[in-house]
Amino acid sequence: MLEWGTIKLQWGIVDKYGDNIEFWGYLFKNMFIGEYQHLIDDKGRIAVPSKFRSLLKGGVIMTKGLDHCLFVFDKKSWQPIAEKIKALPFSQANARAFSRLMLGSAMEANLDVQGRILLPDYLRDYAGLKKQTIITGVYNRLEIWDEEQWKKYKDRTEASSEDIAENLDGLGI
C-alpha cells in the first residue's frame, strides 16, 4: 500500500542504511520531490525543507543550474555528475562552457544546526533570488528558484505539457 506524501509499506524491505526501499520488486531510493516555499534571511541563508535534511547531513554542493535556478546536490549524487562533466572534451567550446557553468560555480556547504545553508552572493545573483523562493525536488537534486521566476516557468511548462509529453515519446516515457 503506497500513500502520497508518505510511504506506507506492506511486505517491503528497507536496507540497513535506510537508503533503499524494496517494495513488490521495485526499488525506491531516497529522492527529492515536492515544492516548498522558503524565505532567504538577511544573512543570505535559506532553510532546507525538514524532510530533506537527513539526506543532506553530509553536506551539499550548490551550483548554477539551468533555466537560471540553483542546483543543490548531496555529495553522493554530485560525484558521478562531476565525473561526467570532467570527461567532456575540453577542445569543444560548449563542453568548456558547460564545465565552467557547473563546476566553476560549484560550492560546498553544510547545513547549520537549524537546517539552513548560506547562499553566496554570486549564486543568488545568477538565479535572481530575492526574498521569496521556491525549493523544488527533482529526484536527485533540489532546485532553488526566485518565486516569481518559478511561477512564470511553471505556467509556461504547464501550458505546453501535452507538447512536452509528445516529445518525450522517443525517450520511452
Brief account:
With 173 residues, the protein is of the alpha+beta class. Strand 10 and strand 11 form a beta hairpin.
What does this entry look like structurally?
With 173 residues, the protein is of the alpha+beta class. The protein has two domains: 30 residues, no CATH class; 126 residues, 3-Layer(aba) Sandwich (Chemotaxis protein chec), CATH 3.40.1550.20. The chain is 29% helix and 29% strand. The chain has five helices and eleven strands. The protein has a six-stranded antiparallel sheet with strand order 4-10-11-7-6-8. The longest helix has 13 residues. The radius of gyration is 18 Å and the shape is globular. The two termini are 24 Å apart. The relative contact order is 0.17. The N terminus is likely disordered.
Number of strands: 11
User: Mind telling me the CATH superfamily name of the largest domain?
Assistant: Transcriptional regulator MraZ domain
CATH topology of the largest domain: Chemotaxis protein chec
Into which percentage range does the β-strand content fall?
25-35%
User: How many DSSP helices?
Assistant: 5
- The radius of gyration computed from the alpha-carbon positions, rounded to a whole number of angstroms, is 18 Å
CATH architecture of the largest domain: 3-Layer(aba) Sandwich
Helix percent band: 25-40%
Physical arrangement of strands within the biggest beta sheet? 4-10-11-7-6-8
Biggest sheet overview: 6 strands, antiparallel
Query: How are helices and strands ordered from N to C?
Result: EEEEEEEHHEEHEEHH
Helical/strand content category = alpha+beta
| Top-tier CATH class of the largest domain | Alpha Beta
State the separation between the terminal residues, measured CA to CA: 24 Å
Low-pLDDT parts are: 1-24
Gross geometry: globular
Mean model confidence by pLDDT: 86
